[in-house]
Design a protein that fits this description.
CATH superfamily of the largest domain: phage-related protein like domain
Helix content: 25-40%
CATH architecture of the largest domain: Alpha-Beta Complex
Strand content: 25-35%
Number of strands: 21
Shape: elongated
CATH topology of the largest domain: phage-related protein like fold
Largest sheet: 10 strands, mixed
Number of domains: 3
Length: about 600
């Protein structure tokens, strides 16, 4: 499957004599020249002849505009200066041009000063036309959006009004055809732009676009015609078609980047690889690896059918982040990259008590009651009549609910133009670590608060059988007592649960002594192993010398945390900046935590 055809306007030039003594300034090596006017110029197009008119009020600049030797661009030496500034004066475009100080250009400088070289020529590209035909059949195409990309010194004059300014006042010859006043119809221009975007997505050529423009069709009709054209083309082609972007290393059908979502994700992944080189890019992302941010923006505009020839990096980025007028998926690519870095950093961040908790996904923000079982701890024999006795399912009384937390950060247009990926490395990573720390803090804070359970008693309470009668440091004796208390826990039906501790949880003050104790309990030599086997978890947010033991959350529910369904961890949304000249990202975390049961945990206040 071929890549979409990009509709790119032809590059035009206009030449004119300089006329009179040049306004050459020897000290600054500058001179003034009229580089473009609204004078109609005859053009011969594939669809017939027409008069071309430049609307000077609609010109855009291509960043730094070079001064060339007769439009040549094959060597660096072809650049002989640059355009210092451009000014609109009525229907004329006047420029101040600086000639390079290279020794090989001294002869040209003298010729310009003496009026021997007396012609300049502007090179420009047209993005949008206003195409009109008069009653007498004269066709006029007015450039209503065009970009000046270069100015050249040339030997042959053509346009009498584009010239190096003389020191006196220049007059317009009486033979000049007056430029018609363009009647700009905003709705027609907007429709033409939509047509080009539609053609790019549907892989339709310039001839199809021009046919629709000349017919003056509405977008509804244009979409119907595009569907018909696609149907006709598919009937002529032999399936299956292989994507032009198929990954050579895979040897099969590659990703089809015509889908904007797929394309944005691939671009974002390529940017994420630049920020985090240990990531492995997918086949779709490999073709974008190494592109700078402005190059990525330029590529997205090309896919949207926008002509980017002559645009500077700043213009490309501005167009890509153009708010409601944006025509590219560049912003989606930036968001995709930021999310990839955020997700990778979040998954790598320290998780605190999360390994000791059950992870849940909730479908909404309402408090969810946890269902408990009673009478199911032991199975009973089925009598000869085949009768099964019923257990009961009841509401356990404990609830968990989600709350939303978040932050907004912005990336400026200047940062993107400068291709500064520091924000992509630092900001999402810091936010990811902040999100992970926040979750860890919520879980540790819940544990330290000793919350009330549905029976009105605290989580750790003597009536719950999970609180040591007196404080003691972790030892074989105190751990044995904790294990005994957990082993003898019963459910609501007074059936033994047979729970076993899996983790020893301590704060930083007990870390060293706990490590020594674990080494004694689980030595390297099997024959010296003690009967208690626990994994040590150090939670820096636990203060003092208190400690806990906890059962395996895969076996029984105790501590639990929840995210919104299908959105585990922090999520990213974006919008084109209003307060920030660039793009804004919103990082959102939907999170909740609770103790679902007191039985899988035991607390010793320590000493």
């Amino acid at each position: 499957m071929n890549a979409p055809a990009l509709i790119e306007p032809e590059t035009f030039t206009r030449r004119a004599p300089m006329g009179g003594a040049a306004t050459w300034d020897e000290k600054s090596r500058t001179f003034r020249a009229i580089v473009a006017t609204a004078t109609p110029v005859l053009r011969r197009g594939w669809d017939g002849d027409y008069m071309e008119v430049l609307n000077v009020a609609c010109v855009e600049m291509a960043g730094s505009v070079p001064f060339l030797n007769a439009h040549r661009t094959g060597q660096i030496g072809d650049v002989i200066g640059r355009v210092e500034r451009v000014e609109r004066k009525g229907d004329k475009l006047e420029a101040v041009i600086r000639l390079s100080g290279r020794a090989d250009l001294e002869g040209l400088a003298r010729d310009i000063a003496d009026g021997v070289v007396d012609a300049v020529s502007a090179g420009y590209v047209v993005a949008d036309w206003l195409d009109e035909t008069a009653e007498d059949g004269t066709r006029t195409k007015t450039a209503i959006k065009w970009t000046l990309v270069e100015v050249s010194a040339v030997p042959v004059p053509a346009d009498p009004n584009a010239r190096i300014r003389s020191k006196g006042t220049m007059t317009t010859p009486e033979t000049t055809t007056p430029a018609p006043e363009p009647r700009l119809r905003a709705d027609r221009i907007a429709t033409d732009l939509e047509l080009r975007g539609l053609a790019s997505v549907a892989n339709l050529d310039a001839a199809w676009v021009n046919e629709q423009i000349e017919a003056g069709v509405t977008m509804r009709v244009a979409r119907e015609r595009a569907i018909d054209a696609l149907s006709d083309r598919q009937n002529r082609e032999q399936p299956p078609t292989v994507s032009h972007y198929a990954d050579a290393g895979v040897g099969g059908v590659g990703p089809d980047l015509r889908d904007p979502a797929t394309r944005a994700q691939a671009m974002g992944e390529a940017l994420a690889v630049r920020a985090m080189p240990d990531l492995t890019p997918s086949p779709a992302a490999r073709q974008f690896i190494g592109l700078s941010l402005p190059e990525m923006a330029r590529e997205s505009l090309r896919w949207a059918g926008v002509d980017v020839r002559g645009m500077s990096a700043g213009q490309v980025v501005t167009r890509s982040l153009g708010g409601l007028h944006s025509t590219s998926d560049f912003a989606n690519a930036l968001a995709s990259a930021a999310f990839a870095v955020l997700r990778k950093s979040y998954e790598s961040a320290p998780s605190g008590l999360k390994p000791l908790a059950r992870r849940m996904e909730l479908s909404d923000f309402r408090a969810r009651s946890i269902v408990g079982l009673s009478g199911f701890s032991a199975l009973e024999k089925v009598n000869e009549a085949g009768e099964f006795k019923r257990g009961t399912i009841h509401d356990g009384g404990e609830t968990i609910r989600l709350e939303t937390f978040g932050r907004i950060f912005g990336v400026t247009r200047q940062v993107i133009v400068n291709d500064d990926l520091g924000w992509l490395v630092d900001v999402p990573k810091k936010l990811a670590v902040a999100a992970a720390n926040f979750e860890a803090q919520q879980l540790a804070g819940l544990l330290a608060s000793n919350p009330k359970m549905s029976d009105g008693k605290a989580l750790f309470h003597s009536d719950h059988g999970n609180l040591a009668s007196s404080g003691a440091a972790p030892s074989e004796t105190s751990l044995s007592a904790a294990r005994l208390a957990m082993r003898t826990q019963k459910d609501e039906a007074q059936q033994l649960l047979g729970l076993a501790p899996r983790f020893l949880v301590v704060g930083p003050e007990l870390e060293t002594s706990a490590e020594k104790l674990m080494a004694q309990i689980t030595p390297a030599e099997t024959e010296n192993a003690q009967p208690i086997k626990l994994s040590l978890v150090v939670e820096p947010r636990i203060s003092g010398k208190e400690w806990y033991v906890a059962a395996d959350p895969a076996i029984v529910d105790g501590l639990a945390y929840a995210h919104l369904q299908s959105e585990p961890g922090p999520q990213i949304e974006h919008r084109l900046g209003f307060d920030v000249d660039g793009i804004e990202f919103k990082v959102r975390l939907d999170f909740g935590c609770a103790f679902l049961d007191f039985r899988p945990w035991f607390h010793n206040p320590g000493q």
